[in-house]
Specification:
alpha+beta; 4-stranded antiparallel sheet; 38% helix; Alpha-Beta Plaits
């Protein structure tokens, strides 16, 4: 499943990338590829192909992720994407 995660947070792009890179290895077994778009400081768009939504949800709701969200007042909005012909 292809999804888009729009993250808005009180931090810098470097803060986000540090967290993303730290969790990327944990997520490698349930996604095949991703692209990150920087909208502005404090707003990122992540397009990612997820192969196991249950594992993705576990990561997104983990204590580590909840702590980061709280620290940076992060709001994630997740969209499902389908390719159009």
């Amino acid at each position: 499943m292809n999804i888009c995660v729009v993250s808005t947070f009180d931090g810098t792009t470097d803060d986000y990338m540090e967290m993303f890179n730290a969790t990327k290895d944990k997520a490698a077994d349930f996604f095949t590829h991703y692209d990150i778009g920087i909208i502005r400081e404090g707003k990122i768009i992540l397009m990612i192909h997820i192969t196991d939504m249950e594992k993705f949800n576990e990561l997104m709701t983990s204590e580590e992720m909840q702590a980061w969200d709280k620290k940076f007042n992060c709001i994630d909005v997740v969209y499902s994407l389908e390719k159009m012909n």
